[in-house]
Design a protein that fits this description.
Layout (H helix, E strand, L loop, with lengths): L10 E8 L13 E2 L12 E3 L7 E3 L9 E8 L2 E7 L7 H9 L6 E5 L11 H8 L4 E5 L6 E5 L5 E3 L5 H6 L2 E5 L4 E3 L4 E3 L16 E5 L2 E4 L9 E5 L3 E6 L6 H12 L4 E7 L5 H4 L2 H9 L5 E5 L4 H10 L12 E3 L1
Parallel strand pairs: 6-7, 7-8, 8-11, 17-18, 18-19
Antiparallel strand pairs: 1-5, 1-20, 2-20, 3-4, 5-6, 9-10, 9-14, 12-13, 13-16, 14-15, 16-17
Helix pairs in contact: 1-2, 6-7
Length: about 325
């Protein structure tokens, strides 16, 4: 593979806007700024209530089963913003953006990691706030696939499916590509479809897709993609949504795409939760430890067993995530 020239940037800030957990008592830690009364990443909004003395209480960030992160890139003296994923509920994303004091007017694009609804449906509230502004939404062509999960009892749960017409009618401009693509003048790389090269990251066997009217196995979820940045003097920053491609596959793909061997930071969902995936936790931890990461922030669908194993296996790199956490990379 001929390497793609990814332009280095001076720094990248990543703020968790939507995630499964919220802990307002987490303190700042090195490059991490936490949101809450003991952190410095933002002020807690005051809201009126008749149930508190003085008629005022506080409004905390909401956690939900989903993921969204704000990418802020420092390059050539400028700061540019891209939203990565949008969470699961219509009001979760926009509500947390408001609580964090982040204006969506500043977003130059939205990148969606894949078509599962817990990464998409927050576009609803974002669209109502922005109106028709033709903000680019970058995604893989298989994003629109109809899908279901086979449940332990043998039943099937069909997942809510994103609507291309709905997203475009809301004022977004859809950009599809299964290949790697650049944003922001060559400093942000969307991986496109990820090469599957490990022998243990084999996908989700209970996942199916409807193609030509028939439900067929869809374990690999080919639309799963990540974002890559190159921080000057440090290495690659890799941001995932769920990591259905396998986080080791994604990291190795990022290195092969760019020709840069040093991976500095990995953040996002790693999808290692549940009995199907727990068996690959040890090999995943070992492979990531071999990368000598500077920062590891497992989020969303990583699962508590994997979180503990990653914290033990990469103690110097591991940072717990929480809604509102701001990582200065």
């Amino acid at each position: 593979m001929e390497p793609i020239s990814l332009q280095p940037v001076e720094g990248v800030d990543i703020t968790t806007v939507v995630d499964n957990s919220s802990d307002v008592l987490m303190p700042d830690e090195g490059l991490v700024r936490r949101w809450g009364p003991v952190g410095t990443a933002g002020h807690i909004p005051v809201i009126p209530t008749e149930l508190a003395e003085g008629g005022k209480s506080v409004d905390f960030l909401r956690a939900e089963h989903g993921f969204s992160a704000l990418i802020e890139i420092h390059s050539s003296g400028n700061r540019r913003r891209v939203l990565f994923d949008a969470g699961i509920t219509p009001d979760g994303l926009i509500g947390n953006l408001d609580r964090l004091g982040i204006s969506p007017d500043t977003f130059e694009a939205v990148v969606l990691s894949h078509g599962h609804f817990d990464h998409v449906m927050g576009l609803d509230g974002l669209a109502r706030r922005l109106g028709r502004r033709n903000v680019p939404v970058v995604l893989h062509p298989e994003f629109w696939t109809r899908r279901r999960i086979i449940t332990p009892g043998g039943g099937a749960w069909e997942l809510p499916m994103p609507s291309r017409r709905g997203i475009e009618d809301a004022g977004f401009t859809v950009i599809e590509d299964r290949r790697p693509s650049f944003l922001l003048d060559g400093v942000l790389l969307v991986t496109g479809e990820v090469d599957r090269t490990t022998d243990f990251e084999t996908g989700m066997p209970i996942h199916q897709a409807c193609r030509d009217g028939d439900w067929t196995p869809d374990p690999l979820i080919h639309d799963d993609q990540a974002v890559i940045l190159h921080v000057r003097g440090k290495g690659l920053v890799v941001l995932t949504g769920c990591g259905h491609s396998g986080i080791v596959n994604i990291v190795r793909h990022a290195k092969a795409l760019t020709g840069i061997d040093r991976v500095y930071a990995v953040l996002g969902g790693l999808h290692l939760t549940g009995g199907i995936f727990e068996k690959i936790i040890p090999r995943t931890v070992a492979a990531l430890a071999d990368e000598h990461l500077g920062v590891l922030v497992p989020a969303h669908c990583t699962g508590w067993k994997a979180q503990h194993a990653l914290a033990a296996g990469l103690p110097d790199a591991f940072r717990p995530n929480s809604v509102g956490s701001h990582f200065e990379l």
